[in-house]
Amino acid sequence: MSSPSSQSRKRDPPTPASEDPLSPPSQRSRAHDTSTELQPMPTSPAMDVSLFSILQSEIDASSPLMYGTPSSRVEGTPRSGIRGTPARQRADLGSVRKAPQVDMHSEPVSENAVAGSEQGAGQRLVIWGTDVNVGTCKEKFQRFLQQFTDPNSREEENAGLDLNEPLYMQKLDEISVVGEPVLNVNCSHIQTFDADLYRQLICYPQEVIPTFDMAVNELFFDRFPDSVLEHQIQVRPYSALKTRNMRALNPEDIDQLITISGMVIRTSQLIPEMQEAFFRCQVCAFNTRVEVDRGRIAEPAVCRNCNTTHSMALVHNRSAFSDKQMIKLQESPEDMPAGQTPHTTVVYAHNDLVDKVQPGDRINITGTTLIFYLSCLLFSSGIYRAAPMRLNPRQSQVKSVYKTHIDAIHFRKTDEKRLHGLDEDGEQKLFTKERVAVLKELAAKPDVYDRLSSALAPSIYEHEDIKKGILLQLFGGTRKDFTQTGRGNFRAEVNILLCGDPGTSKSQLLQYVYNLVPRGQYTSGKGSSAVGLTAYVMKDPETRQLVLQTGALVLSDNGICCIDEFDKMSDSTRSVLHEVMEQQTLSIAKAGIICQLNARTSVLAAANPVESQWNPKKTTIENIQLPHTLLSRFDLIFLMLDPQDEAYDRRLAHHLVSLYYQSEEQLEEEHLDMAMLKDYIAFARTSVHPRLSEEASQALIEAYVDMRKIGSGRGMVSAYPRQLESLIRLAEAHAKVRFSNKVESIDVEEAKRLHREALKQSATDPRTGFVDISILTTGMSATARKRKEEVAQALKKLIQSKGKTPAMKYQQLFDDLRGQSEAAITKDMFDEALRALADEDYLTVTGKTVRLL
Amino acid sequence: MPTVHDWINNPLGVVDGLFAQSNSSPDWEKKVVEYFKEKLKLNDAHTWVPSLNDVPLHYLKPNSLVKFRCMVQDMFDPEFFLGVYETNDPTSNSKQVKCGKYKDVTEGGQVDFNSRNTVTSERQTFYCVPIPGESQWNSYAGTNQARVVPSTSYVPNRHKRSYEEDDEMDMQPQQMKDVSQGAQSSAESHGNTEPKRQETEAPSHDSSPSHCTSSLDLNFPLPGEKGPACLVKVYENWDSFKLNDMLEVFGILSVDPALSVIADEREASSLLDPTEGMETVEEQRVHSPPASLVPRLHMLYAQPLAHNNPLLPSSATENNDLSSDLGELASVRAELLTYLTHVLMGDSLAAEYLILHLISNVYSRRDVLPLGKFTLNLSGCPHSSPYTEHLYKVIQQLVPSSYRLCMSLHNMNNQRMVPRKDYTANRLVSGTLQLASNTSLFLDETQLEQGQLDATGVRNITALGNLISWQKVDYDFNYHQMEFSCNINVLITSEGRSLLPSDSQVHLRPTLNPPNLEEYLSAVQVAQVPSQLNKYRIYLSVARALNYTISDEITKAVEEDFVEMRKDDPQNMSAEDLHRLLVVARLLSLSHGQNTLSRDGWMKAKQLEALRISRTPQQKCVNGNEP
């Protein structure tokens, strides 16, 4: 697109005192219109334009290509100051107007005094139908911009700004540097500054926002008289506190500023929407412009110049268009009541908001600040268009249903930040003060830990420690960042493996957890492939664009990934878990896309023993046949075994029977309900960040040293730094349960206890009965290793005792060794011993013969 | 009875009257609902209301009160409409305030959109379909009753009122008799043999050929379903309705041709002008289909249905009446058991389990665990013989709604089971697993042969597995899944042990070996007198709805017993087994019409289970890993 198009956008700058905030173009002078239409058409417009631009900065349409996208509009001539900067029509505010909209200067203005704004003595005029006084409103907003500070700001976009200086003045500075003429204003800031102004903004956004625009531009060009902007600054308010669930929208919200959250499911093609129509008289070539009002154009019936009727024809090339896009927004699944289908709403994005959001990929746009409109009424377009031509017999009959849509003013993607950090502030707002008070009251109870753990999956009997482990997993540790020192992020998520006999309700526990957490994923090892877990690259059949489709692990970022039948997973699938479970990232290198995705997910896995029944004579590794490299990444490994004990049976029977006959109410009394538990966890996760106290760190050190000591007595290592990290995480999670920002020694005690319990179950060497961490870390207990060495030594002795025989029969050697040794020696053990000796370069095995070297 | 005619034939007149009286105070809306509720309560008044299920649409008078027994298949977005509006008559220049509730289009004069009297209100639209899989005896019982009705509504309005009244008067006693006797008479008149039924059935479907010939997909969950679909406009409490709820809706029928014309014109114009309306053509078709195909129904009042058995009073409140028949239950049970034993070729144990299965019902959920479900796997069914087909026919005759799903490879790979959201048309495309509560799903695994399951097949198997284990279906919303809990009785017939999980597996052990299976089975079926069948149908529905408790004393005893059993054989008595035992005991007691578990009942349940397990010992070991 050539420069003419940029010129075409130039508009008469509105003078602050007299301009109409909604429709500046209507005010412009059109004295030169007759001259422009004489110019030659597309072939060589550039020269004319430059000429005109020197003469006047407000040349109108001259190019056949009028509908340029914002980005294609190049800066034309240098200009500065508020008068030199073109105002851009705000399609987001005025595309469709409801009912009689009275411009405050062109229509009679009611003379009501605005209560509470007495200071503007001469400015008692308000916009028709509202209580907005433009002067006062502008003054208030300018004061807000100049004075508002937010020392506690945690918003990411304010990073790098001095929080003690007026926030928005710094943003204006930013605009003058960056040149992007958009000012995002947080509505809650306005509310804390001036509640009345906020109320007006919410109730009359169509009137108030243009006033804000005016105020900002005045202020900006006062400060930076020389700066050059593409168009005048537009104010974009966001996160209005009247945040609504899509379901809660009702007729009262029409024409108000609202914020709703949802998921984009479809976006339309770009639609050029006519803002201003250009008509030319066929007889005398007189030009006129008509602005689009409420979606229609009033075609001039008579030429003002020559008084010919019906001589005006629309010239498309010279009409003004703006970009528009339809977006379908669907309720986010978290907001939905059970048993209902999600609602959808139509959203229109205008100008530079077009193509800001994409459908799918589970994008949640929240914080979208939107105006909720009643669109052009009722008439189906067919009848409406037909009306002037022929009298439709049914014209008076109108389908009595409105079309509704929302005009977007500001988009905010909630999950965009997931790539960088955590979107914790977004979730926090969900709780009302009362709810928080209830949660805090619960947290203050001394037995909150037990209460919560018993509330977890009440239908599953006992397994108290496992439930406690899962509870701590749900809370998670504190995120620590060591990127500065080069170690990257420390994992804060707790990983848990449940193994045990079939039919011990492992799947049920997983299902429960999956239903409890907002970002949970449930997969079964049998059905999932590596691709299904991680991410894959797909070519979109329509656009030929490569699209990254994310799998369960990425989707459960900041949540829990429940993997059932962990043992039935293929090795290649399991291997992707290595990276996820320690580094918490996923690396993809496929089809030219190389990236690292965050997968800060806790893994809750369930595995069945290989022999279908748990063999108590074998170690955990032998029972479930999982690589020890993976096992060592689990903080807690629990065995869910069927305890064979009469007292337990009795309690179990009682529990189950009561499950079947107690009524719902009785159960409610006993347990916290699921919703409460959900809220409690969500609150703790977002607002409690415990740190280790001096006392606690001492206790942790002692605990670790103790763990090391146990093993060292018997010449084995019983704890590794990984275990220490696990302990820290568990202790932090326990502090979170108490809503405490400090990890204290009781937290460490519980972490120690739980860790010990889990170890006792999973890392006990069945041969010796001792807890031996090396079972999990190296896959073999220390005693087993010792045994292996002994066999190898015995074999070596045997061979040496045979004297100088270079080669021996394999079978013969095996029989000899078996005869000699007092303990039973299996073929496996013999093979292992041979391999060990081969490693020492003492012998080689070729087929059925063993040769000495 | 002029009033009857007023409120059935011209309910909008009543609404307008009440609106005019109210002087625009907002409580007129409540009054309207109250008025119709009162009217319907009066001695069986609801039976006079013509039913959309049975009467072909073109026999029904527009803007009259009708009822519709249906299932909520989809929920559309809420819409804003003109609740109250003012019209401007250009000829007389007079203004008039009118009410737009229960109407699709405005009437009379130009609407003044800028009037201060305009009230915008909100309503919700549900897409409703007839309850999927309703058995023929069920809908037939309905049609029989309604067959009389068309004569009235079919009478053109021009007829003198007196004539119509007489007609109505004549009919009412007849209808009442019909209802009081149950469908006994109706069942006697037909339903003796299969071919005969189909013969009588055929004409009634032919009378409404528009339903099947249309190119419009009416989105029925089950393939081959027929019947009217309906857009139900709900004005209040729409949050209390859930997807797949069974409802009996009383509402004002709206088939205004203007609706379809608008839709047509829009369609044409939307091609010209894509910015207008922003709805795709598909969306148009789905959300505003021609009213002649998908009528609109403005809901005045809806009754949630606990069951769809026409032989029982529809409201669930009359539980007391049900228990009065308890004495008779025992004898009916014995007869049913004999019948099923014959059907199952002399296997009384399998028959016993089949009864338990048929009365099972998810009565409660504990977090994720559904309680009371009892999925039965009948293994040992002969392959490649029409046996399963016959078995299904028997079950179809007993339960109000059912569906047989042949698990052939082709079906598994091609059928759409899980409902899926179509974002282009903005609707929930139904699948076979979108079923109402207490539907019997008959999975025929004998049809499954060796071969390759593709991605759809695997997904379908997973969906079936989830349905059986958790009684939920995860609907596919493209970007995410949404869980909908359900209550479906699943019966699996297979040769060996089914590949799907089940609560209980019974291996069929026939004692009879009739030379010609088919002949034998049809003979068994024919032997059942229709009145007998009706007794069974009532029995099954009643037994399912009974309340059930366990006394503390029995609880103790059960606990003791469990501990003992664990001592004897810890391997074969796990928590899982106790779960099953408790369900069996519950269902066994209910099937005998007992409200509470007795010691005797517990022992019987144990015996039954022991007998069943003894039949399938070798299979238990194979079942090493969890399903």
Automatic annotation (TrEMBL), chain A:
<dbReference type="GO" id="GO:0006271">
    <property type="term" value="P:DNA strand elongation involved in DNA replication"/>
</dbReference>
<dbReference type="GO" id="GO:0016787">
    <property type="term" value="F:hydrolase activity"/>
</dbReference>
<dbReference type="GO" id="GO:0042555">
    <property type="term" value="C:MCM complex"/>
</dbReference>
<dbReference type="Pfam" id="PF17855">
    <property type="entry name" value="MCM_lid"/>
</dbReference>
<keyword id="KW-0131">Cell cycle</keyword>
<dbReference type="Pfam" id="PF21128">
    <property type="entry name" value="WHD_MCM4"/>
</dbReference>
<dbReference type="InterPro" id="IPR031327">
    <property type="entry name" value="MCM"/>
</dbReference>
<protein>
    <recommendedName>
        <fullName>DNA replication licensing factor MCM4</fullName>
        <ecNumber>3.6.4.12</ecNumber>
    </recommendedName>
</protein>
<dbReference type="Pfam" id="PF00493">
    <property type="entry name" value="MCM"/>
</dbReference>
<comment type="function">
    <text>Acts as component of the MCM2-7 complex (MCM complex) which is the replicative helicase essential for 'once per cell cycle' DNA replication initiation and elongation in eukaryotic cells. The active ATPase sites in the MCM2-7 ring are formed through the interaction surfaces of two neighboring subunits such that a critical structure of a conserved arginine finger motif is provided in trans relative to the ATP-binding site of the Walker A box of the adjacent subunit. The six ATPase active sites, however, are likely to contribute differentially to the complex helicase activity.</text>
</comment>
<comment type="subunit">
    <text>Component of the MCM2-7 complex.</text>
</comment>
<dbReference type="GO" id="GO:0017116">
    <property type="term" value="F:single-stranded DNA helicase activity"/>
</dbReference>
<keyword id="KW-0238">DNA-binding</keyword>
<dbReference type="InterPro" id="IPR012340">
    <property type="entry name" value="NA-bd_OB-fold"/>
</dbReference>
<dbReference type="InterPro" id="IPR018525">
    <property type="entry name" value="MCM_CS"/>
</dbReference>
<dbReference type="InterPro" id="IPR003593">
    <property type="entry name" value="AAA+_ATPase"/>
</dbReference>
<keyword id="KW-0347">Helicase</keyword>
<dbReference type="InterPro" id="IPR027417">
    <property type="entry name" value="P-loop_NTPase"/>
</dbReference>
<feature type="region of interest" description="Disordered">
    <location>
        <begin position="63"/>
        <end position="116"/>
    </location>
</feature>
<dbReference type="GO" id="GO:0005524">
    <property type="term" value="F:ATP binding"/>
</dbReference>
<dbReference type="Pfam" id="PF14551">
    <property type="entry name" value="MCM_N"/>
</dbReference>
<keyword id="KW-0539">Nucleus</keyword>
From TrEMBL, chain B:
<feature type="compositionally biased region" description="Basic and acidic residues">
    <location>
        <begin position="191"/>
        <end position="204"/>
    </location>
</feature>
<keyword id="KW-0539">Nucleus</keyword>
<feature type="region of interest" description="Disordered">
    <location>
        <begin position="163"/>
        <end position="219"/>
    </location>
</feature>
<protein>
    <recommendedName>
        <fullName>Mini-chromosome maintenance complex-binding protein</fullName>
    </recommendedName>
</protein>
<feature type="compositionally biased region" description="Polar residues">
    <location>
        <begin position="172"/>
        <end position="190"/>
    </location>
</feature>
<feature type="compositionally biased region" description="Low complexity">
    <location>
        <begin position="205"/>
        <end position="218"/>
    </location>
</feature>
<dbReference type="GO" id="GO:0003682">
    <property type="term" value="F:chromatin binding"/>
</dbReference>
<dbReference type="GO" id="GO:0006261">
    <property type="term" value="P:DNA-templated DNA replication"/>
</dbReference>
<dbReference type="Pfam" id="PF09739">
    <property type="entry name" value="MCM_bind"/>
</dbReference>
<comment type="similarity">
    <text>Belongs to the MCMBP family.</text>
</comment>
<dbReference type="GO" id="GO:0005634">
    <property type="term" value="C:nucleus"/>
</dbReference>
<dbReference type="InterPro" id="IPR019140">
    <property type="entry name" value="MCM_complex-bd"/>
</dbReference>
